Amino acid sequence: MSLPIYLIGARGCGKTTIGQALSQALGYAFSDTDHNLQLTTQRTVAEIVATEGWDSFRARETESLRAVTAPATVIATGGGMVLAEVNRRFMREHGQVIWLNAPSTVLADRLERQPEAAQRPTLTGRPIAEEMSDILRERAHLYRQTAHHEVNAMQAPEQVVDQILQCLSLARAS
Ligand code: ADP
Ligand code: MG
């Protein structure tokens, strides 16, 4: 049975982009916990946070993680998924966990260029570069301890996918 592959990392590291490409390369299904949350609640992340607060959003995120977990599936997770110990343990026990690691400056540049980034609530109301720097400082150890493998997410998407395939010994002869 092919275990699910969980992609973790801060906003902008490429979980959705790389997840879709990786799922195609492997012939796996693709799921995105943020997207699942939006489908099941019919609300955006920003709306859930605004109406119910962050704690409720985090609880719903844990439900989404469980809901999308299935064999032969690449799962892009929300950037804060690793904050809860229950989520960290769940991912490590149920699949292979990959951290897409990139510096905060790269993440901030990507998010500023992405129109839908504006729909995401900022945690602090401060400039995005400062916020991403704080987020990585707070969470890097959680991403590191949760991941079975760490990959360099600054590479071109095809290279990131290749590196993941190599880590998982799933590279196919071509
Ligand atoms: P996440 O799902 O982790 O928040 P996304 O996949 O939405 O990240 O990517 C955020 C932005 O960065 C998108 O505009 C995407 O096209 C771009 N991006 C993602 N991965 C790469 C990469 N390896 N190189 C260059 N740009 C990337
Ligand atoms: Mg995403």
Any overview of this molecule?
The protein is α/β, with parallel strands linked by helices and 174 residues long. The protein is built from eight helices and five strands; from the N terminus they run E-H-E-H-H-H-E-H-E-H-H-E-H. The longest helix is centred in the last third of the chain and has 19 residues, at 128-146. It starts with a strand and ends in a 7-residue tail after the last helix. The model has no long low-confidence stretch (mean pLDDT 92). The structure holds adenosine-5'-diphosphate (ADP) and magnesium ion (MG). Magnesium ion binds next to helix 1.
N- and C-termini, Cα separation: 23 Å
Bound compounds: adenosine-5'-diphosphate, magnesium ion
Instruction: Report the portion of residues in β strands.
Output: 5-15%
Structural class: alpha/beta
Secondary structure topology:
Blueprint: E1 5-8, H1 15-26, E2 29-32, H2 33-41, H3 45-52, H4 54-68, E3 73-76, H5 85-94, E4 96-101, H6 104-113, H7 128-146, E5 149-152, H8 157-167
Parallel strand pairs: 1-3, 1-4, 2-3, 4-5
Features:
single chain, alpha/beta, 5 strands
Summarize the structure.
By secondary structure, this protein is α/β, with parallel strands linked by helices. It has helices at residues 15-26, 33-41, 45-52, 54-68, 85-94, 104-113, 128-146, 157-167; strands spanning 5-8, 29-32, 73-76, 96-101, 149-152. It binds adenosine-5'-diphosphate and magnesium ion (MG).
